[in-house]
Amino acid sequence: MKKIMLILVLVAFVAVALVVFQSIKQDTDNVIKTNKEDYRETHYSIKLGSCNIDFTTYQKELDRDLISIHDTCSNMFLEQKISFFRDILKRIFKDEKGSNFNSIFYGDFFNNPELSEKLAIAAHEDKGWNKRTGKAMSGDSNAFIEDLINTKQIYNNLELLFKEFNLSIKVSSVEKVLARRAYELSYYNSLQKQGIDKKEILPFHCLTWFSIKPIN
To answer: How many domains does the chain have?
Structure first.
């Protein structure tokens, strides 16, 4: 009887191990890895119908510590993309264990309209943003937007994702801040419901750089 119980326990253990292994395998199997030797870079991508999510790592000394994120999935919220980001990061950290990544470039508010809307609302609510001119009241607009994004935790989903890998991220730099009148933005109806005047000039896009470091 003891032998039968032992066998059953072993069978159950093996079954659980197989399920876990299969789950991990599936996570990374949907990631397509492409080495572009001429450019000395590696692309990790997931194709989702007509759009694509791509993370790029670099073998060039200058960019060896950088991960660039590009996605064309404007029909999805960032929250919906996070599971795919997770799969790609698992693959990168598995295949490039010795790498010491310390910065991330994520340059596309155009394909993340909910982030763009959060940015516009945050600027509307902040006295440091001049809604008539579409610039910071004082100082550099890039520096103002960098601080605004960090303060308002606009990239909160990414912060939580990297925390799973024992990493913290923080916006370290932004550039090419673009601003338009509220009524010209695709989500103006939503802004209008929050009492935002159609003539306010609000930021809706910027190129974003993050610093990443291990959580102590």
So the answer is: 3
